[in-house]
Every structure is written in C-alpha cells, then in structure tokens.
Amino acid sequence: METKVLKLALSEFKLDDGGKTFTGYASTFGNVDSYGDTILKGAYAETLQANGLPKMFFNHNIYEVPMGKWVDAQEDDYGLKLSGEFTPGNTLANEVRAAIKHGTLDGLSIGYRLRKGDFDITETGRTIRKVARLPEVSIVTFPADGKALLDTASVKSSAEGIDEVETIRDLEYFLRDAGGFSKQAAQAVVAKFKKLTEVRDAPPDAKSELLRRLEAMAQ
C-alpha cells in the first residue's frame, strides 16, 4: 500500500465542536508530488462508492484500534475533503487532538492502492486517474508534503502486484509499492539490475526467477 502525506496547512484542517469533530483535505488534485505523481479529480469516486469510507488511524498503525472515524468524504475541485470524529474516551484520540491544537501534529496521509491501468506513466512519474482502494487515512507525525511514506505493515498484502511487472518502470513501482523501497532506492536497484543482468535480453526463465525473488522480498 502506498501513502501520500499532506501538511495540515495545505489540507485546510479544522477542528470543530471543541475539537471533537474535524474536516480537512487528505489529497489535492493536479499537483505534482515528490515522486512526480499527479492525482486527477475523480480518482477516488469509484472506490468510495464501492468500498465506503476509509478507516482512521494514527501514523498508519492499522493494528491499533482506530482513534476515530471518517463520517464523510467528498471530492471537489481542490481535492478529497473528509470530515471525521474522534472516538470519545479513546486515549490516543485525546492525545492526538491535543497535539493538533498545540501544533505538534501537522499532517494527513492517505493509504491507497493502485492497479495497472489506473495510471499513465509520464517522464517524471505517474498521472493517477483512479485509486483502486482507499483503505485508510491517517493523521501523521512527520509530514513531507507530496512525499510518499511506507506502511510496512501492509507490504505483504500488496505482493500480488508482482504479476503485473512487465517493464523496467513496472519493476521500479513494484519495489516502491510492495517491496518497501523509497523512490531513490527503487531506481538504484533497477539500475544495478539492468547493469548486471541485461534484463532486456534475459531469457524468460531468468525473468521468472527475478519475479520469484521479488515476491519473496514482499513476504
């Protein structure tokens, strides 16, 4: 699962009702992030209709009890706007709310999945037309506007993407999304692999062995 972080200053994050409820943008449209990716308006419409609202976690910790719930998610011209509520009596929710008020937490991050065909590859990255799944949206500690972070807990669940690796660029994205590599690390691995094995001229058996090893990395 990939993640993208948006600073609260850009997300127009607002606490209401004494801090019990809040609204904000988890994603903006038409901007190029640090991976070179651009998300287009309408990218979330299908998954929200088919799969419902995402879960709410802190720092993508999907093994903890959600600290609240998203009660509404709508796309507008600016981006994906969500409204949420903190769970009453949840200790973490109280701590996060206090940290937001104090200004020590300042990021929102989407956890999402893409399928082949959901995006177009450009010279710098991807133009994302559709997000296949939006399992969760987190409040995070370390925002880096436009920088994708890794949810290592869900790396294994993304291993099915190995079947769609057909090109060098596909391999780079697989390493990033399922293998847990940063953009720079994925590019370095691909470059080294091309140099060592001449992957374009490799026989099918060699390519199959590569894919098996990559799949093992995601387990």
From TrEMBL:
Keywords: Hydrolase, Protease, Viral release from host cell
Residue span(s) of domain Prohead serine protease: 17-151
InterPro entries: Peptidase_S78_dom (IPR054613), Prohead_protease (IPR006433)
GO aspect biological process, one term: proteolysis
Superkingdom of the source species: Bacteria
Coiled-coil region(s): none
GO MF terms, alphabetically ordered: peptidase activity
Record-given protein name: Prohead serine protease domain-containing protein
Species, as recorded: Herbaspirillum frisingense
